[in-house]
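In this supplementary section we document a worked example of the pipeline. Step one takes a protein sequence of length 100 as its only input; no multiple sequence alignment statistics are reported here. Step two produces a three-dimensional model, which step three serialises into structure tokens for compact storage. The input and output of this example are shown verbatim.
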Amino acid sequence: MGSTVEVLYFEGCPGHEQVLPRVRELADAHGAELLVRPVESPEAAEQERFLGSPTIRVDGRDVDPGAAERTDYGLKCRIYRHGGTQSAFPPDAWLVAAFS
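The serialised model returned by step three reads:
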């Protein structure tokens, strides 16, 4: 049985649109199902443990290695910090590692 990849987003943050082709490519290569879902309310953000847009999970685990320690859920654009840089989407290495 294949993995499930979720891309959760908040309308108005462009990061999910930029990263979606790469996530789709990795999902296809690994035979994973891809779900793209909007998060539309503060209550949904809390329930989904949504750290901002985009949030990318493989089999329920955020691709950000430090995400489990965070609780700042909400409707916002997400900033990924890695190696002294900031980006609107996670580094490719995190996406690839999430499928390993």
